[in-house]
Amino acid sequence: MTINSDPKVHKSEEEWRELLTPEQFHVLRKHGTERAGSSSLNDEHREGTFICAACDNLLFKANAKFESGTGWPSFFQPYSADAITEHKDRSFFMTRIEVRCAKCDGHLGHVFKDGPQPTGLRYCMNGVAMNFTPDEND
Fold this sequence. Notes:
This protein is mainly β. The protein is built from two helices and nine strands. It has helices spanning 13-19, 22-28; strands at residues 48-52, 58-61, 65-66, 74-75, 84-89, 96-101, 107-112, 122-125, 130-134.
């Protein structure tokens, strides 16, 4: 797993295509969205860490995950303040806040202000954009 202070990951489009599955490439590099309910990470309830599928950056702790009912893995806070970056997304005739991996700029999903406390935020992530690493105890 990458420590969040590591330098940015830069790869060509061809290198990303070789590294990622077609679905991961579509979501992470082309800002796509996986079909709701399609990710096995929706049902992941073990202790551990969710990491970027492209660069292994630490993104979310399992104890920040909650059941949002949206069909996508949802979290109320990132792993750390420098794990992700946020960007205005004005696609589809609306304004949303896009969430990207801070290390590789891979598209992860969006954040909304309708989540649980303590933050009130819902980081609605594409499961295909992440991998899960269980704690060693699990």
